[in-house]
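2024-03-11 09:14:02 INFO worker-7 job=invfold-0412 stage=load source=structure_tokens
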């Protein structure tokens, strides 16, 4: 978690001392879920779909490099790992059974092939599930996405 100074949505003018409104107020309008999930799956910013969401394999950027959307609110935690385990397990467990019953390979061959397959599929899916989970949180305005200090909360 990164500590950020609170943004007020207003700025004091240096010459006159008057407050100037900055365009940071979120309207609270519904965000479409499906495009946000797709952009997240592609590991792109859920807001603009252009900027990269991740700055490493799984590290989410604090802000989008293109549109400036704040992404540090995300709380994906262990969710992507659980989803990866569920999907990989449900795909490969039946395949192991089918391969063993149909082809009767040597145990070491079976173990080697499915170990490589499990690792490869897990490494492919994990960052995509993380991006989709961040996109889901962004679309549903969870964990601070869509709320700015000083802005009104959307009606529930």
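2024-03-11 09:14:09 INFO worker-7 stage=emit residues=156
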């Amino acid at each position: 978690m990164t500590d950020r100074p609170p943004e007020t949505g207003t700025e004091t003018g240096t010459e006159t001392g008057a407050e100037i409104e900055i365009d940071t107020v979120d309207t609270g309008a519904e965000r479409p879920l499906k495009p946000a999930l797709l952009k997240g799956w592609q590991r792109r910013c859920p807001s603009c779909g252009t900027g990269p969401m991740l700055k490493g394999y799984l590290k989410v950027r604090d802000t989008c490099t293109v549109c400036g959307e704040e992404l540090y609110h995300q709380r994906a935690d262990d969710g992507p790992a659980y989803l990866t385990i569920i999907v990989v397990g449900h795909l490969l467990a039946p395949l192991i059974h089918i391969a063993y019953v149909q082809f009767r390979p040597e145990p070491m061959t079976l173990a080697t092939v499915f170990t490589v397959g499990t690792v490869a599929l897990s490494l492919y899916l994990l960052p995509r599930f993380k991006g989709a989970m961040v996109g889901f949180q962004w679309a549903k305005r969870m964990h601070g996405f869509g709320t700015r200090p000083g802005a009104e909360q959307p009606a529930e």
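2024-03-11 09:14:09 INFO worker-7 stage=report msg="The CA atoms of residues 37 and 132 lie 5 Å apart."
2024-03-11 09:14:10 INFO worker-7 job finished
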